[in-house]
Design goal:
2 copies of one chain form a homodimer. Chain A folds into 2 domains: 5-45, Arc Repressor Mutant, subunit A (Orthogonal Bundle), CATH 1.10.10; 65-139, Alpha-Beta Plaits, CATH 3.30.70.920. In chain A, 38% of the residues lie in helices and 30% in strands. Chain A contains 5 helices and 5 strands. Chain A binds a DNA duplex (17 and 17 nucleotides) through residues 21-23, 31-35, 37, 41.
Chain lengths: 154, 154
DNA sequence: CTTGAAAGGAGATATAA
DNA sequence: TTATATCTCCTTTCAAG
């Protein structure tokens, strides 16, 4: 379960680009392809690597209207919380949902086509969920930075 | 540049799991492997698919302390904005940075090991950036949902 | 950990239907 | 547009140092 420097560098490379050949990773790490192959399989087996995915260009697929929405529930019973979280899970427009400390209860990251689509999402989907007290939306003017790579090597 | 239903389904599959074989995608779409192969190459050439990456388990790599930090700048000159955004880009702990409408200027998603690491990040890195007026941090108690898959098929 | 070998599979391209 | 054939390279496993 312990990660040495080779594992960390390998994970870093896989986070940047998962489509290289084992030979290429081996070259970058200064190890043999067999060794790197075994390391990748080990990291997958251990669940360090969850899965491999394609990342798309939001603009190119016309889904670049990003909204952060703070949500407060009316009452924080176990039942209300469970219900809200299950409903939010079903909404594909909600890419992230975090239960937060502080003033509001949840922070949602929502991606839709445009403002009109957002209005529809809010009215028909989000605020249709029971027990929501209040919401507060902030719109992304510009996505300055966005990475899926965790900071393994500080 | 137009996407038909096959393209959308294919992108959806690639967003979920990019390690399947062309034959498998073809089977799921009801198309031939050659056709799907050409479609994938087309989507890559057009830049719809930015890249392929490994997604890691935050917990397993001990980086599951997630903080959302709102940042306000002192003055919103072009120079200040440019400087702040360039500095934030350099920080690996900042996984996302959004220029927002509303009360605060920026929303940052920061991932570190624990509260102590966050304190160090704030003191030594973030607030070391010039022209930051104020910050307000909210800590993630629980990550309810997190996906990288854009909602292509509503 | 390394090298080397070997089988099978998938990627990539060309050609025919 | 599909299907087929081909070639190459990669993946995957194994043995031995």
């Amino acid at each position: 379960m312990m990660l040495d420097i080779h594992d960390l560098k390998l994970l870093q490379l896989l986070q940047q680009n998962a489509k290289r050949t084992t030979k290429e990773y081996a070259h970058r790490l200064g190890l043999s392809t067999t060794a790197v192959y075994e390391r990748i399989k080990k990291l997958e087996r251990q669940g360090m690597v969850l899965h491999y995915v394609a990342l798309l260009d939001k603009k190119k697929v016309a889904l670049d209207f990003v909204v952060f929405c703070h949500v407060r529930l009316t009452r924080h019973t176990q039942a209300n919380i469970g219900y809200f979280e299950r409903e939010v899970m079903k909404l594909p427009e909600v890419m992230e949902c975090h239960h937060l400390s502080g003033d509001y209860d949840y922070l949602l990251k929502i991606v839709v086509r445009d403002m009109e689509a957002y209005r529809h999402f809010m009215v028909a989907k989000l605020t249709a969920i029971e027990h929501i007290g209040s919401t507060q939306s902030s719109f992304t003017i510009k996505e300055v930075k966005h990475t899926t790579a965790l900071p393994l090597l500080p």
